[in-house]
Amino acid sequence: MSEIKRVVLAYSGGLDTSVILKWLQVTYGCEVVTFTADLGQEGELYVDDVREEFVRDFVFPMMRANARYEGDYLLGTSIARPLISKRLVEIARETGADAVAHGATGKGNDQVRFELGVAALAPDLKVIAPWREWDLTSRTALIAWAEAHQIPVPKDKRGESPFSTDANLLHTSSEGKVLEDPWEEVPDYVYSRTVDPEAAPDVPEYVTVDFECGDGIALNGAAMSPASLLTALNELGRTHGIGRLDLVENRFVGMKSRGMYETPGGTIYAAAHRGIEQITLDRGAAHLKDELMPRYAELIYNGFWFAPEREMLQAAIDHSQAKVSGTVRLKLYKGLAQVVGRKSPESLYSERHVTFEDDAGAYDQKDAAGFIRLNALRLRLLAQRDRG
After folding, report:
1. Which residues pair with 260 in a beta bridge?
2. pLDDT for 388
3. Catalytic positions, written as ranges
């Protein structure tokens, strides 16, 4: 293993990666460069503040697609992994490292996401995944190894963790232990970013979000950067108990897993984006986007952010957003973010055409007869044939 001289480790500061840091030094005899990404997770030691880049270059492009994995999951963990992979590679280049390392387990999706990202950006770099190499198969074994190598273990890490969490500016995910039985309701203490919707304010709050070319630019008329906007929406979502999701999903590695996700600001933002698209996107473009979305979401979930097919889909999605500009008004109330108003200088909505009152000749209802006859022609021919 002497060919590995220097490794860049994606370092969270927790028990696992603290052990990994020392394990890499012991096992490979190498120098270790640690990298911690500040993705807005709060409460940790940050090294590299990438919050603006995260929202601007990863979250917002994904939101333009209205992406949801398996119809529900707003991909909060998935979308953070390509940025971490990108920074791992950049730091490896800056420091002359031979390899990068991560703390993802061999059962999860993150190992795939990290390693596909590195493969796409730096195929020459070796990737070290300690969970697939070492024999430390339990929390007890990790603590014992840490103590044997003089690694401090905080008191709160010594007990059995009731569940594991991952957090960034877009969401918090919780999995494992008390959440593993999909029949049991998520305990209240698992939630950390939202109040219980039943305990949320009894009076609704109305807010507006402004969009330009498919991206949010302002909240209640005040211009904001991408990360600032998502941060402000997170606080609104926290207050009103918005963005909780209890999901059993299909992991890329083949198994089903149950997780609890809190995406307060992202849930509000996603609703607002759909709202502005309703009046600015042509039907054909809107429906095609909805057809492409499951494939696009699956690519992100599976770790193919840097794959050409994701980039091709992104180009089509971004093209569709050229006129997606305007203002959406939302009602926030006890776990719900409802679109209650939208306006845009690029609107395709025409009151004159849809009114039940006199439309002054904007639409000739007699035209519908020929339209229906032509669309019914094949159905008539089928019916005549099948009835003999």
Report:
1. 174, 246
2. 78
3. 16, 81, 110, 164
Residues facing 49 on adjacent strands: 38
226-240 vs 264-280: helix crossing angle, rounded to 10: 110
Which residue, 82, 39, 44, 62, is CA-closest to 234? 39
CATH superfamily of 6-160: HUPs (3.40.50.620)
- For the chain, the structural domain boundaries read 6-160, 172-281+323-351
φ/ψ (deg, to 5) at 101: -140, 150
Closest CA to 164 of 14, 50, 51: 14
HSE toward the beta carbon, residue 380, CA cutoff 13 A: 6
H-helix or E-strand spanning residue 146: helix 139-148
**Residue 34, both tokens:** 């640690």
Give 172-281+323-351's CATH code, choosing from 2.70.98.70, 3.40.640.10, 3.30.160.390, 3.90.1260.10. Answer: 3.90.1260.10
Quick: pLDDT tens for 287-321: 999 999 999 999 999 999 999 999 999 999 999 99
The answer for 313, left when phi > 0, alpha when psi is -120 to 50, beta otherwise, is: alpha
* pLDDT, the chain, mean: 94
Q: How many other CB atoms are found less than 10 A from the CB of residue 163?
A: 18
Instruction: Please give the full DSSP string across 64-125, using - where no structure is assigned.
Output: HTT--BTTTB--TTGGGHHHHHHHHHHHHHHHT-SEEE----TTSSHHHHHHHHHHHH-TTS
Are domains 6-160 and 172-281+323-351 of this chain identical in fold? no
The torsion of the CA quartet 337, 342, 344, 349, rounded to 10 degrees, works out to 130
Radius of gyration of the chain (CA): 25
3-state secondary structure of 275: helix
* pTM of full prediction above 0.85: yes
Phi and psi, residue 222, nearest 5°: -95, 120
For residues 4 and 99, is the Cβ–Cβ distance under 8 A? yes
